[in-house]
Amino acid sequence: MTDPFDALIAAGASADVTGWDFSWLEGRATEERPPWGYARLLAERLATASASLDVQTGGGEVLAEAERFPATAVATESWPPNVARATRRLHPRGVVVVADPDEPPLPFADGAFDLVTSRHPATIWWDEIARVLRPGGTYLAQHVGPASVFELIEFFLGPQPEARRGRHPDDEAAAARAAGLEIVDLRTAHLRIEIHDVAAVVYLLRKVIWWVPGFTVEAYRDRLRDLHDLIAADGPFVGHSTRHLIEARRR
After folding, report:
1. Which end of the chain has the smaller Cβ count within 10 Å, N or C?
2. Which residues lie closer than 8 Å to 54 by C-beta, 6 or more apart?
């Protein structure tokens, strides 16, 4: 008889983790959503922009929810499987997908866009964002905040006190101002996550690779077993994500 733990591990290890679609987690994990509705806000801004850039678009899942795009619409992505997925999804909508290493400089001219957007960028190069924005242009993004899902991260890595300050919205706002941007809006949210089985954990740690760098099932099998037993005894593993909506304008 197959050990339920082994079956869950196999399911998480074999799931497709390309793109930025988390629908595989349905029934296995839930995450509360931020109250501001980023996809709706993004669609509203795209409908009135003349030239837009979506940075680190993933598989283009969120960008593709918009009904209308400006005449010039571009998205960048670094991971080749996501570049291919975003191209298939966005090219028919008139959005050009550019393979970019997510390191400065962005491959665009100064002042090329009146709208730059990003959802959950792994890195944020404020000087480059300011450079490619036209005067008066807007950066609208939803960022991952500090200590996001650290309950899960620290379960595997132990306490990470120095890392808990990273991605703080106040620090990001200060960096944006230093690059010549004016902060128009800054909102934060603290959101509940429930993880119902260890397959979801394996899937997440394979997909969001910076949570537990170098994660493999083999390296963390004992800790995965501990988490499986904990969920079986106490119910869903509860964590919290942090998000902030940031809108900045080039002066």
Report:
1. N
2. 60, 63, 74, 75, 76, 95, 116, 117, 118
